[in-house]
Write a structure and sequence with these properties.
The structure is a single chain. The strands form 5 sheets. This protein has a 7-stranded mixed β-sheet with strand order 12-13-11-10-14-17-18. Strands 2-3-6-1-7 form a 5-stranded parallel β-sheet, with helices on both faces. The chain is globular and about 95 Å long. Strand 15 and strand 16 form a beta hairpin. The C terminus is likely disordered. The protein has 20 helices and 18 strands. The protein is an alpha/beta fold.
Length: 546
């Protein structure tokens, strides 16, 4: 770096004052001189202090906090090992240790991914810099522009280090899954070098044209949908999943964090607004519909601003918001929570789905089309979900004899499957067993229990396969007052992520085969004899009444 600066100074001496080249050289020298080539802050690796800060900033998330503590513990041990090595070595110039794995928080919007990164920075005592990658398509935004271009600037990584003024800040790469590519290059390919501990010790920004050591930077990524992150980049990340909050967790977060923050933002005294738990529950249930708490905080902000108007007019008494006053403050209820159907009906089954906003319940409806043909699918279903419907129809058709279904029902009628709400796109394989239940219920004229929701993938041999998003789906069933949930047996281990109070209120049923699903979901389960074949028409499975 010193050689480069002296070289540019020699050039500057030879350039006339009227030349535009002089301004370019001076700007370049300013960047070189102001970059933190050696400056760094000492990490605070007190694990007890870290736990206190994480508990102050976030409610719950115990597994996430524990993982962060483990990460800090490895920092501490590596630092002690480095110090012991330096104390026994003649060369005592190096005072750094490699950060190592890059953490990526993945989960729905509003669950606290960005704020967790800020808490980690506060715990370590490092400066925090956030780089938003949403919509980024030009790789020069990260790697910088060459100085031959007019208005050339360093990339965002170097700019973040310049703002932090140290070589070991915490840099959050927000929205990793929103990075795109076009004719200007692929920014995700640049991130491969930036996030690889084996390469980033010699990162070369095109503007600086000098190697900069990024190995001391703690990079933290965030993403909503991991499927949109390229596989080579995903391989460099250690994924920590953040799922949605239960209504009880949202209530505690609102009481301890969100409401006091919004009261302060509105310029009100601490006791100006009092919102009892009964009112907060109604806000959570009827004015928000999300996995996180961002909309909840916005609604509490609306409440506080209404009260702020009264205070500004001289009415300074403390105001208690009763449940019956909510429509006066927040308007009509915005969301009607999905409830179970009041009666059981043949051809309708209740499924569970995962979305970026959290879990949802969905109804699979099937009807026969007299003198029709083929399979009609509606409800904006994606390719995978359409294939699930075809698998479900083929399975029921192939097992029609063992299920007691007349084959003429298939030959003389078409089949229409619809998944409300029709305006919302849906995709994924986890509605497979729900579609089988709906079709079998319709053709057997045997309703599916209306108190049961189910999720699971099915194959043509009748096996119930594991799915993801169990926590979000169970929470969706709990919000819809569903008391019985059917899951693949391979997902039994995932119930540890479900809040204990929710687990106690729901009966869980685990299945390996689709015959068990039909036995445990139909209103009138009956013993159906197998057709005795082991191949095309149903195998040797017998559906037993229980």
């Amino acid at each position: 770096v010193e050689k480069q600066i002296k070289r540019e100074l020699d050039r500057l001496e030879r350039v006339t004052s009227a030349s535009a080249e002089g301004g370019v050289i001076r700007t370049y020298l300013d960047w070189l001189l102001e970059m933190p080539w050696r400056q760094q802050v000492e990490d605070n690796l007190d694990l007890d202090n870290a736990r206190i800060i994480l508990d102050q900033d976030h409610y719950g998330l115990e597994k996430i906090k524990e993982r962060i503590i483990e990460h800090l513990a490895t920092f501490k041990l590596k630092k002690l090992a480095q110090q012991q090595l330096l104390s026994s070595s003649a060369n005592k110039t190096s005072q750094s240790y490699t950060v190592g794995t890059v953490i990526c928080f993945a989960g729905p919007p509003g669950v606290g991914k960005t704020s967790l990164g800020q808490s980690i920075a506060r715990t370590l005592g490092r400066p925090f810099e956030r780089i938003s990658l949403g919509g980024l398509r030009d790789e020069a935004e990260l790697r910088g522009h060459r100085r031959t271009y007019i208005g050339a600037m360093p990339g965002r990584i170097v700019q973040a280090l310049h703002r932090a003024e140290v070589r070991n800040p915490v840099i959050m790469l927000d929205e990793l899954d929103k990075v795109g590519m076009d004719y200007r290059g692929d920014p995700a390919s640049v991130l491969l070098e930036i996030l690889d501990p084996q390469q980033n010790h010699s990162f070369r920004d095109l503007y600086l044209d000098l190697n900069f050591d990024l190995s001391q930077v703690l990079f933290i990524g965030t993403a909503n949908d991991l499927s949109h992150i390229p596989a080579p980049l995903l391989d460099r990340l250690e994924i920590i999943e953040l799922s949605g909050y239960s209504p009880e967790e949202k209530l505690k977060i609102a009481e301890q964090y969100l409401l006091p923050r919004q009261i302060t933002k509105a310029g009100l005294p601490e006791d100006a607004v009092k919102v009892p738990p009964s009112t907060l529950k109604l806000i959570i249930e009827y004015y928000t519909h999300e996995a996180g708490v961002r909309k909840l905080e916005q609604q509490l902000g609306n409440l506080c601003r209404k009260v702020a108007v009264c205070h500004a007019q001289g009415k300074t008494h403390s105001q208690l918001i009763h449940p019956e006053q909510l429509e006066e403050f927040l308007g009509a209820r915005q969301f009607l929570q999905s409830k179970i159907r009041s009666t059981s009906q043949s051809g309708i089954a209740t499924g569970l789905a995962w979305t970026l906003q959290g879990g949802e319940i969905l109804f699979i409806e099937a009807v026969l089309l007299p003198q029709g043909k083929d399979l009609i699918l509606t409800g904006q279903l994606g390719e995978v979900m359409q294939e699930s419907a075809e698998i479900a129809r083929s399975y029921v058709w192939s097992r029609s004899r063992s299920l007691g279904i007349d084959l003429n029902s298939f030959k003389a009628n078409g089949l229409h499957i619809h998944v409300p709400s029709g305006a919302i796109p849906k995709d994924g394989p986890s509605a497979g067993i729900t579609m089988v239940a709906a079709i079998a219920s319709l053709l057997m004229d045997n309703p599916v229990r209306n108190d049961t929701a189910m999720t699971g993938e099915v194959n043509l041999s009748g096996e119930v396969l594991a799915i993801g998003g169990v926590r979000e789906k169970v929470l969706a069933a709990h919000r819809a007052v569903i008391k019985r949930v059917l899951l693949p047996r391979h997902n039994e281990k995932d119930l540890v992520d479900v809040p204990p109070d929710v687990r106690q209120q729901i009966e869980f049923v685990f299945c390996d085969r689709i015959e068990q699903v039909l036995t445990k979901t139909l209103v009138n389960p009956r013993e159906v004899k197998s057709n005795g074949t082991n191949g095309k028409n149903g195998g040797n499975q017998v559906m037993e009444a229980r």
